[in-house]
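Researcher: Structure prediction, please.
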Amino acid sequence: MIALFFLAFLLLIAAEVVKGLSANGTPPVLQRLTWQLDLAWVMWRNILYIRVALLAALFFFAGRAWPDFGLGAALGTVVFGAVWYGVYHLFNRFWVGRVKFPPISQMVFEGKDENQVPGDIQVLGVDYNGQRLAVPLNMINFHHQMSVTVGGKPMWFTYCGLCRSGRVYDAVVDGRPLDFTLVGAITFNAVFQDNQTGSWWRQELGEAAKGPLAGQALTDIDFEQMSLDAWYEKYPDSTALQYDPKFLRPYNFAAKLLSYQTSWPAWARHESPPLVIGVEIGAEARGYDFGQLQSRGMVQDEVGGKPLLVAAESEGFTGFVYDRTVKGEALDFEPDDGGYKDTKTGSHWDKFGRCTQGDLKGEALERVQNYQQFVRSWIEFHSHTTFYSF
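Model: Predicted structure follows.
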C-alpha cells in the first residue's frame, strides 16, 4: 500500500507538470507536437477533477498503509508534498500567462504634442470611423493583448512574441463583445481564453480552436505597422497609447527584443531570414524577405491577380505594400528620394503611397493589408505560401 501511496503522489506531480508545460511555451519538444493544443485543453479543463481523484487515492492508500508508516515513509511524504506544492505554485502562481503577463492597469491616449512614447517604437495603428489610434508594439508584446474601442468599435489588439506577429480583430461575436485572458503559448503561437464563454482562440488566425465557440473566427480589422514617428507623419491628428507606469521595465525590455538588442534563449531564435512581410490575397499567399527588401528598397510583384508595390525603409522595421493600380492601369515604379516615381508620368509618390508631385498629384495607392513576422510562423499558418525571389 505504501508503494501505491507514493505512485499516486507521483501521478499527482506528473499531472501538474503536464498541465503546466502543455500551455507554457518554453519546451520546444512540446511546441512541435501537433496535438499539443488537444493535450492542453484536456489538462486545463480537467485538472481539478484529476487532483480530486488523485488526492482521494492518496488518502485511501495512506489509510490502508498507516500501520506500516515508518520514519522513511513520513520523510518521503514531506518531500513529495513539497515537490507537488513547488510544481503547483510554479505553474499556477508564477509561470503562467495571466501572471507573467498581467493586463494593462490604465489606458491613457495622447496626441502628438503630448506623447511620451519614443518615436522609433513600432506601433499597430488603426484608422477607423474617423478615429486614428496607435498602440506601441512593445506594450502589446508584453501584455500580449489589449481590448480597445476605436471609432465606436470594440477591437482586440494582439501580438505574439514567438511569432513576432501582430493582429487586430473585431472583438464582437454574435452581437457580444469579448475580452480575453492569455492562456500561454501552444505550437509556437499565443492562445487566449475569452472570459465570456471560456473558448480558446489562436492569435495568428483569430479562430476559436476549443470550447463553445470552436470553429468561429473573429473578423480582421485593417491595421498598419510602422514606427510611431512615421504614424504621426501620416496621421498627425492621431492619438497613441501611453506607457503604463507600472510596467516600464518590461516595456523597455520588449523594445530591445523587437529591435534585436537582446534575445530570448537560443531555442526561440528563428532561421534566417528572420522576418518576412507577408500578404494573402484570395487563395494566394506570398512572403518577402524583410532584410532583402530593405537592401532593395522596393520590389514589384503580382499576387492573386493584383499588381503590388512592396517596400521597406532602410532602417528600422517598417514595411509598406500597395496596389499599383491607378485609374484602372497598373503603374511601374522605381525608388525616388525617399519614395517612389512612376515611370509613366514621372510623378513622385511618398512612402505612404501618396502622389505629391507630377501629373498624378493628389492620387493615392490603395494600401494592401500585410503582416510582419518570423518566417517560420508565416509558413506554419500559411502553408500554401510562396516566396518572392530576389
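Model: The longest helix spans residues 36-65.
Researcher: Thanks, that helps.
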